[in-house]
């Protein structure tokens, strides 16, 4: 890891994701970087002193964008679910597999057998795959422990990833992800006796940046999620929710009622949910990887979100079951092809709006005073990036000024 010295990048095409132009594009631009921050951005011809005397680096017309932000992942986990991949190909559904004790619970069993160290080691290549595509901030959830110890173990592994690599890691406590076997007939008791105490402990240990849950017929009811969110509120922690993925339980509205940073998935969200999200400033995080993997047919109501002015983010949802994908670039393509987002919306979804989904106001756009989290790409125009699957045109990436 090296810290980059103060310098000006010149001869750059800059997709600031800020301002009225599509992609906030500035051609023949310059960006001055120092003290881990963006010091100035604009047209090269307008570069003011003292930046015009700073050492410069010619980007030869390459594209600069904000570093990408993956705002929803389950990167830390044990085992794999390739057997379930085969089962789904033979006709089983995600919900069926879950009801038979597979799905999330299969990963819980595998994760409970791991240590902080082994979870960290198995997650590192997945994190490196994201970094190789220009990701500079990633959210990582717990939720495959669902006992007092393992939830914390997962979050410690996530924190350790953030200290080894030059990337910001934000953690979400997801104790309410699936009902463990021993509580099958009494999920309320799981919430009271395991989930809430585990949250208290993880928070006291400084391991929690936000609190998440899974509100679904195969997971937790709105009332149960409410109790988790109330505890989050007592701790002053922001919330987010896996909502309306397989059915409409009013999850988006519930999340918005708690001022959630984001509601995620949202295939079944209704107009009232979208309206409530607009009022509370809750980001709609779309997860086309899960939609693709589970061969869902119900599309998230993108037009409702657009019409109500709900910011849309996109994320990998990287996990071993419903979205075994560690490519945010591929996800941006899927968001366009499957959900009909424009390339600009996909870019906003992986930068500016993804930052909002994490409650971050110092990144996601290229603007003076913001973090120097940037990606440099060998393309002529940002729309090229989500238009393809496979090529990785990233040529440089800095995070907080360093590589
Ligand atoms: O975001 N929807 C619930 N949770 C995860 C699935 C995790 C898993 O299947 O292991 C998701 O898709
Ligand atoms: Fe998820």
Features:
single chain; 403 residues; alpha/beta; 8-stranded parallel beta sheet; 7-stranded mixed beta sheet; 36% helix; globular; binds N-(iminomethyl)-L-glutamic acid; binds fe (iii) ion
Question: Would you spell out the secondary-structure blueprint of this structure?
Answer:
Elements: E1 7-15, E2 25-34, E3 37-43, E4 56-58, E5 63-66, E6 68-70, H1 82-89, H2 94-99, H3 104-112, H4 116-131, E7 135-141, H5 148-164, E8 168-176, H6 187-204, E9 210-215, H7 222-234, E10 240-243, H8 251-257, E11 262-265, H9 271-280, E12 283-286, H10 288-293, H11 302-308, E13 312-314, H12 328-339, H13 343-349, H14 352-357, E14 374-377, H15 384-387, E15 394-398
Parallel strand pairs: 1-4, 1-5, 6-7, 7-8, 8-9, 9-10, 10-11, 11-12, 12-13
Antiparallel strand pairs: 1-2, 2-3, 5-14, 14-15
The structure holds N-(iminomethyl)-L-glutamic acid and fe (iii) ion (FE).
């Amino acid at each position: 890891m090296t810290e980059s010295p103060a310098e000006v990048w010149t001869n750059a095409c800059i997709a600031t994701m800020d301002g009225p132009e599509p992609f906030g594009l500035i051609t023949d631009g310059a960006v001055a970087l120092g003290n881990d921050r963006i010091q100035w951005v604009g047209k090269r011809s307008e570069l003011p002193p003292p930046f015009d005397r700073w050492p410069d680096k010619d980007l030869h017309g390459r594209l600069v964008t904000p570093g990408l932000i993956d705002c929803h992942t389950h990167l830390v986990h044990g085992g794999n679910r390739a057997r379930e991949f085969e089962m789904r190909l033979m006709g089983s559904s995600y919900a069926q597999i879950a009801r038979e004790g597979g799905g999330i619970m299969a990963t819980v069993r595998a994760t409970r057998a791991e240590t902080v160290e082994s979870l960290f080691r198995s997650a590192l290549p997945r994190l490196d795959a994201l970094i190789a595509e220009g990701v500079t901030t990633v959210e990582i959830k717990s939720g495959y422990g669902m006992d007092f110890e393992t939830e914390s173990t997962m979050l410690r592994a996530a924190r350790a990833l953030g200290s080894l690599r030059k990337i910001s890691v934000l953690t979400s406590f997801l104790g309410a992800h699936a009902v463990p076997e021993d509580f099958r007939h009494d999920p309320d008791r799981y919430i009271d006796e395991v989930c809430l105490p585990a949250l208290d402990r993880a928070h006291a240990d400084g391991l929690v940046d936000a609190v998440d849950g899974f509100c679904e017929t195969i997971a937790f009811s709105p009332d149960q999620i409410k109790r988790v969110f109330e505890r989050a509120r007592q701790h002053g922690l922001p919330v987010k929710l896996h909502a309306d993925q397989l059915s409409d339980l009013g999850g988006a509205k519930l999340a918005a009622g708690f001022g959630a940073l984001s509601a995620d998935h949202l295939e079944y969200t209704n107009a009232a949910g979208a309206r409530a999200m607009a009022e509370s400033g809750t980001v709609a995080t779309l997860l086309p990887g899960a939609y693709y993997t589970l061969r869902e047919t119900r599309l998230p109501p993108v037009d409702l979100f657009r019409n109500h002015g709900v910011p849309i983010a996109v994320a990998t949802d990287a996990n071993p079951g419903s979205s075994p994908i560690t490519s945010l670039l591929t996800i941006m393509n899927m968001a366009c092809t499957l959900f009909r987002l424009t390339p600009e919306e996909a870019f906003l979804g992986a930068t500016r709006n993804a930052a909002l989904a994490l409650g971050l106001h110092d990144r996601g756009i290229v603007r003076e005073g913001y973090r120097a989290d940037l990606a440099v790409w060998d393309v002529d125009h940002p729309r090229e990036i989500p238009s393809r699957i496979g090529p990785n045109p990233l040529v440089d990436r800095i995070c907080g000024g360093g590589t």
